[in-house]
Amino acid sequence: MVKKPGNPARGSSTGRPLMVLLDVLGQRWTLRVLWELRNGRVTFRALRSLCDEVSPTLLNARLKTLRDLALVDLDDEGYGLTPKGADLARQFAKLDRWAEDWAKDVLR
Amino acid sequence: MVKKPGNPARGSSTGRPLMVLLDVLGQRWTLRVLWELRNGRVTFRALRSLCDEVSPTLLNARLKTLRDLALVDLDDEGYGLTPKGADLARQFAKLDRWAEDWAKDVLR
DNA sequence: GAGTATGCTACAGAATGTGTAGCGTCAACG
DNA sequence: CGTTGACGCTACACATTCTGTAGCATACTC
Question: Which pTM was predicted?
């Protein structure tokens, strides 16, 4: 089944958008892909390199989902974020700094 | 190996905190657990219910990781977020509203 | 037409997640 | 004391998902 808000997320009978989002983001590499696209369009193969050579099988699966969800699109420049996707990526950009602080905390 | 900033994340030789965070959050149910703890402490069994009856095996594994990462702790009231964990959860709280808007967009 | 790049698929083996049953501990009840 | 019920948590067989490698079909360059 296509993952989309309105369709039930795994383990949640409601199609509540946040649950669908958490379901999708909670699959390996999804967050990472969004993160690596933050600086503009990249080819499939370049994206693979950025993601430490994920298997193309999986990368393609993720990109398909993200395209269904209107977060990513593909043109002759390669893959890139849609406006909504960029918006989401921006939310995660804040996490980068947060993670640095957090690391200091954890490692003490 | 214990997941911690400083240790390499899966698929990333660097221990860069964000990568570790993405690795951890990109495991099923991790985001959901953080989300369900947003309103205060809950017992293991209650948390399980909130998470649509995830298997206790997995829930326990996730909680262990989140405790290692100082995002969650356990006392006689049950499981709850640490200050850092609450901070992180707050970041994701914004996602709830975002997801609602996004849903309208996707479903058009 | 050989070389190189693209997006993407196939497939076997490994890792991860799921679902159910139940253990050991404790506190309350009668 | 013996039962009942709730707690955190573990065992284990089964299912799904992810990984890694090989390679196809297409297109453009020399």
Answer: 0.88
- Contact between B54 and B48 under an 8 Å Cβ cutoff? The reply is yes
Q: List the domain range (segments joined by +) for residue B85.
A: 17-107
Residue A3, domain member (yes or no) = no
DSSP B80: E
Contact A5, A19 (CB under 8 A): no
pLDDT band at B106 (very low <50, low <70, confident <90, very high): confident
In a domain, A8, yes or no: no
| The pair of three-digit structure tokens given for residue B83, joined into one six-digit string | 């200050």
Chain B closest-CA separation from residue A67 CA (Å): 10
Chosen for mutation from A106, A107, A108 (greatest number of chain B CBs closer than 10 Å) is A106
pLDDT in tens, A55-86: 999 999 999 999 999 999 999 999 999 999 99
What domain count does chain B have?
A: 1
Give the CA-to-C1' distance from B58 to C2 in angstroms.
53
